[in-house]
Design brief:
The complex is a heterotrimer of chains A (247), B (57) and C (153).
Chain A: H1 2-9, H2 12-44, H3 58-85, H4 88-119, H5 128-149, H6 153-167, H7 170-180, H8 200-232, H9 237-245
Helix pairs in contact in A: 2-8, 3-4, 3-6, 3-8, 4-5, 4-6, 4-8, 5-6, 5-7
Chain B: H1 2-9, H2 14-56
Chain C: H1 3-29, H2 31-34, H3 40-44, E1 54-60, E2 66-67, E3 73-79, E4 84-90, E5 102-110, E6 113-122, H4 130-138
Parallel strand pairs in C: 4-6
Antiparallel strand pairs in C: 1-3, 1-5, 2-3, 3-4, 5-6
The chains are: A mainly alpha (247), B mainly alpha (57), C alpha+beta (153).
Chain lengths: 247, 57, 153
């Protein structure tokens, strides 16, 4: 039932065309949001009382960190649907998400280091938050390596989905690490029971950047998923016709 | 002019702030552009394969 | 749902739950190693390691910072609002170091004084413009700072 409904809309050719149609829209929305978000973060938002201008790194660091976790959940979820219901489109979504997730994780770590050096006095510490985010990067890299190592796409998708699902446990660990253990990293500012602990003039650019990062992920996903579909379906008549015609 | 220099200095944190923003935006833009090339490359590979098959037959 | 898919779905759920349980047990076993720092109270209770260096976290006590005018040497006290421990350090302090600030120092106890080889600043999760902080202070309120909370573990 569920599987059949998905199969109908997930017909590779339809998905390929739809992704191509959606990609530029997500692209334009992303450009608008990121330009507005950058302007707000770098010019309009006031300096922080405690950290001065250095806190502006938060406008990249926090959205990147959210996305590093969100993309992972999408990747594992799509992998699970592909594994159980054999929806090839979901395999493609999982595989197409991994590089973007890895980049967001990398940016989270790098911007965190560039923020930690002036404020904490160190580039890196092995506390629970930083370590669990580093493990997330290794999970992404492991997933990508696995996809590259296995030639048969169905086997690669299955192995990748299992790896991604095992790693899902790391996501709540990242979020709660700062509450469960004494860490150098501070507790959550936005996602907390008492409500956000950030002034509205700083919250707005942060949210604009976060939405911009989300539409960015969708824009990249649409393009990457087209590539994955082409590779999945390279022997089908419609892809061959497309390749022959696109000369 | 002085205002611009003072702004760019970011209260003495210029290196950390500008490296973060530069690296972030640079990497994201590159990652947005590369898949477009990848798609053309994949289609080209399929075309080459079809040509080889046609030559054999 | 056909039996094969149901079996796959159940397997998938088991993978996630199994990994979760394994992680939970592993984390409980390594609980102590995951503590980034010990509070002065934990040190007073004898929970901190004696023979090897450890990290001490707390707030810099107001009025306790004494700097040597001829070198980088500095002495101050750290508190978790219950216990206090004196700290000695010779080196560069992070920009955020000031009285009332959360600090994590790496070093070891010598005759009741914590001799630090590294001092890191811990900042809190509150962000606000200086004018807002001033307005709160002017109104007689306390600027919200989440001090190093005393944790149950």
């Amino acid at each position: 039932m569920f599987g059949q409904a998905i199969d109908k809309y997930a017909a590779p050719e339809n998905a390929y065309t739809l992704a191509g149609r959606l990609a530029p829209w997500f692209g334009w929305v992303t450009m608008f949001l990121l330009l507005a978000g950058l302007w707000d973060s770098l010019f309009l938002a006031p300096a922080d009382e405690e950290q001065g201008e250095s806190y502006r790194i938060i406008f990249l660091h926090v959205p990147a960190a959210w996305m590093s976790m969100f993309v992972y959940v999408v990747m594992a979820g799509a992998g699970a649907v592909g594994l159980v219901w054999k929806v090839k489109l979901m395999d493609a979504v999982a595989r197409a998400s991994a590089p973007t997730g890895a980049i967001f994780t990398f940016l989270t770590l790098i911007t965190g280091m560039l923020w930690g050096k002036p404020m904490w006095g160190t580039w890196w510490v092995w506390d629970a938050r930083l370590t669990s985010e580093l493990i997330l990067l290794f999970l992404y890299l492991g997933y990508i390596a696995l996809q590259a190592a296995i030639d048969d796409r169905r086997t690669a998708a299955r192995a990748g989905a299992v790896l991604a699902l095992v790693g899902v446990v790391n996501i709540p660990i990242i979020h709660y690490s700062v509450m469960w253990w004494n860490t150098l990293h501070q507790g959550p500012t936005i996602v907390r029971a008492e409500g956000p602990a950030i002034h509205i003039s700083m919250l707005i650019p942060l949210l604009v950047m976060a939405i911009g990062f989300t539409t960015y992920y969708l824009a990249v996903l649409m393009q990457q998923v087209r590539c994955e579909i082409l590779e999945q379906e390279k022997n089908s008549s419609w892809v061959r016709a497309l390749a022959a015609g696109g000369k | 002019m002085e205002g611009i220099v003072e702004y760019l200095d970011m209260g003495g944190y210029a290196f950390y702030v500008w490296t973060s923003f530069g690296l972030c935006m640079g990497l994201m833009i590159a990652h947005l552009i590369l898949p477009r090339r990848r798609e053309r490359r994949i289609l080209g590979e399929i075309r080459n394969r079809m040509r080889r098959e046609a030559g054999r037959a | 749902m056909n039996p094969k898919r149901r079996k796959l779905l159940i397997t998938t759920i088991f993978i996630v739950l199994g990994a979760g349980a394994a992680a939970a047990f592993a984390l409980m076993a390594f609980q102590e190693n995951l503590l980034y720092f010990y509070s002065p109270l934990q040190v007073a209770k004898g929970e901190a390691p004696v023979s090897r260096p450890f990290r001490l976290g707390g707030l810099v006590v107001h009025g306790s910072v004494k700097r040597d005018p001829h070198s980088l040497a500095v002495a101050f006290e750290l508190t978790d609002t219950v216990e206090k421990i004196g700290v000695r350090y010779d080196g560069i302090l992070p920009d955020l170091f000031r009285e009332g600030q959360g600090i994590v120092a790496n070093g070891s106890l010598t005759d009741g004084v914590f001799v630090a080889s590294e001092v890191l600043a811990k900042h809190d999760e509150n962000y606000m413009p200086p004018e807002v902080a001033d307005a709160i202070k002017a109104a007689g309120g306390a600027v919200p700072t989440t001090h190093l909370r005393e944790r149950q573990n």
